Amino acid sequence: MAEGTALADRIADQRAGVGDPRALLGEFRRAVVLVPLVGGGLWTAEFGGVRWVCGFTDEVALARFARGRASVDGAGAAGRSWEFAELRGARLLDEVVPARGVPAGVAVNIADPEGSMFFPPVAGIVPDAVAVDEEGVAVSPREDAGRGL
């Protein structure tokens, strides 16, 4: 998966302090990421009041996550087969995140402490209609604002 490698390289550059955030976001939007499926939906985790859709740059990164989950879920989970969806980053940010109905973002390669990256629900990353500020308040005005609704 060459797209995943390019995204992983951009993440590494950003983490090293030599990356361009706009280039990283562009690469993420173009990349196909693997998102584990659980219970008929996408694997998510909640942290800091944000629902994070968890994606991985390639099957190796997903396997590291699966091994980590096996240590949390118990020995019986070690041999579990993980189904996943292949989704473009743009679709995750533009369609999946807004459909969550709560502040949501995308966490990439969360099993890799030195290779993870988060795309939070802020303006410029997710659609303005679902972006939040530092306090978790929507940044774009709602249609009913000022109407007493």
Our measurement of the CA-to-CA distance between the termini, rounded to an integer number of angstroms, reads: 49 Å
Shape: globular
The helix tally amounts to: 4
Helix/strand-derived class? alpha+beta
Number of strands: 7
What is the rounded Rg? 16 Å
What's the SSE blueprint?
Blueprint: H1 2-15, H2 21-30, E1 32-38, E2 41-42, E3 44-47, E4 50-55, H3 59-73, E5 84-88, H4 89-99, E6 104-108, E7 117-119
Parallel strand pairs: 4-6
Antiparallel strand pairs: 1-2, 1-5, 3-4, 6-7
Provide keyphrases for this structure:
4 helices; disordered C terminus; three-stranded antiparallel sheet; alpha+beta; globular; 149 residues
Q: How would you describe this protein?
A:
This protein has a four-stranded mixed beta sheet with strand order 3-4-6-7, covered by helices on one side. A three-stranded antiparallel beta sheet has the order 2-1-5. By secondary structure, the protein is an alpha+beta fold. Helix content is 34%, strand content 21%. It has helices spanning 2-15, 21-30, 59-73, 89-99; strands spanning 32-38, 41-42, 44-47, 50-55, 84-88, 104-108, 117-119. It is globular. It contains four helices and seven strands, in the order ααββββαβαββ. The longest helix is centred in the middle third of the chain and has 15 residues, at 59-73. Mean pLDDT is 86; it is low at 141-149.
